[in-house]
Amino acid sequence: MPKLPIPPHGELNYVIDDFAPPWETTPTILCVHGVAECTRAWAPWVPFLARVGRVVRMDQRGFGESTAMPEDFAWSLDIMADDVARVIEAVAPEGLHLIGAKIAGPVVLRAATRHPNLVKSLTLVGTPIVGPSEQEWLDTVEQEGVRPWAEGTMDARLKGMSDAAKQCWIDMMADTPQSTLVGFFRFVASIDARDDLGKITCPTLVIGSDNARRPISATREWQEQIANSELVTVPGQGYHAATTQPAACASAAADFISRL
Length: 260
What we know:
This protein is of the alpha/beta class. Helix content is 38%, strand content 18%.
């Protein structure tokens, strides 16, 4: 798999799914996952997005096959956004269509404001604009490890999905290095992308479900602050719409990019 060097001492992993005829020029789409996930999270999306263009899936710093981060790593939204820009510059320096799920939403928003020449459109799925502040998440990961945290949060995350689906997601999230997640959870409550909303200049699609954690009314409130944006609501009660409704979300994203 391709790897990109990142400061201070690490690498970013990404994979490319490209099924277009080699003589055709197609747009590039970059998918950025949420917390404790990896490139595998986007597998159900690939068949839909690959009809539109070349699909790139990256492992954010510290997650998946990218280098684990120490507990004392100085996380910031700018650092994470610049990681996204590094991948874009490597795979599509002319710019691409950027998709972020959950906490990757603020990351790709910041990438679009810091590097507008690299982002042709944004798709935000199940996104919180301000980071969560659950102290118990950090306590669980520090004291018990990543798997117990994943198990304890999965019903709300993937409400309505089968036990097999939930177990698959638990196993994927449990692969996250404990040091990465401890450091990230110490930082995550400071994430705040509200000031980025009015700075977005590219077409933007916001996808969400109406659930207790992220009501669609709250999503609409910040979505309307993005010029040239539109909102799509998908069914489901879980707050991770990208996984609970992958076909609906991926179809909406593919249609949006095709229209552009």
